[in-house]
Amino acid sequence: MELLNAKHRDYKTRNILTTAERIQVIKAYKRMPNYQRLASTFGCSAKQIKNIISNKDQLLRHYDSVRANKLTDEVTNRRQEKIDFLGKVVYEFLLRALYLRMPIGTTIIRQKAFEVKEAIAIENFSPNNVWLRDFKATYNRLDLASMMEHLPSDMDQRRSLKCIDIIEYVSEQEREERRKILTMTKDENCNSVWESDADGSNSSCSYEHTMTNSDTDMKSNDDDSVVGKNIEPIVVNLASDDEEEGSDDVSLAKAKSINTPANQSISTQKPITLPPFPDIHSYPEALRHLRVLEDFAMIEENYRAIGLITQLEQIFKNPPKLKSLTH
């Protein structure tokens, strides 16, 4: 009896599912209400599956709350990034206005800030006294005399006062600054490695070069060894029950790959076909796609696109009501 218990303990699954995997279990249970099969699919015990299903309401509420808080933080951070960018554009306008000997005052600064705000579509923002005070504090209290003395040497090439031209110039400057920082970081990492190795024969830079030359020879061997090790993350989408049917098959296939043995042949695995891009049937679905586009535009710092996407988002949030046709 003790031998059987010991044997049972040896084979007892101790894999603890993550929150995302637990949500995936809840979705999969609707299509396959079997604890043992789900346990085999997700690589855990049937008891854990049963506990997840028993507490599914609490798990779903917690997951939705976390998603909502994360979305709120992302929106807040994105809005602050836009406000910071607005300040840079307004400051660039002031430099150009000083170079052209134009009069500058609080009214002009606010007018330009409002123009930039409309161009990049910042919601619930107004260039009020609080913003003006923060703007002055950020840029050395806007000492116009000092700014005039220290104008950049290339101001003759920055004469345009059009809002869109200034936005594009500042965006390009930020991209260039990021490229410089990235280059400096790479150089510092390589220098630190070379300094740590007296002869440099064991440095990561030379190692990368060696690995690059030998990648072709090692490819065939690597393909046999990585089967079952590269596991894609499980994607969770609680948007609606209608969208679950198309995504559950792919998610279950990903979960099954967890238990794939390392020595299994590639030919025995069936390729996973991703579902086609879903059709959009409602405004909430369209808004979710717009947020993905806006995130991409923020990464690329394409503020013209961000402004257009934000305007379209407002239209989708308040869609026109179609009048019913009467015959």
From TrEMBL:
Sequence segments annotated as region (Disordered): 193-223
Compositional bias segments (type: Polar residues): 193-215
Ranges annotated as spanning the membrane: none
Localization per Swiss-Prot or TrEMBL: Nucleus
SUPFAM superfamilies: Homeodomain-like
Cited PROSITE patterns: HTH_CENPB
Positions of the HTH CENPB-type domain: 74-145
Signal sequence segment: none
GO cellular component: nucleus
Predominant location category: nucleus
Gene Ontology MF terms: DNA binding
Record keywords: DNA-binding, Nucleus
Protein name: HTH CENPB-type domain-containing protein
Record organism: Bactrocera latifrons
Lineage, uppermost ranks: Eukaryota, Metazoa, Ecdysozoa, Arthropoda, Hexapoda
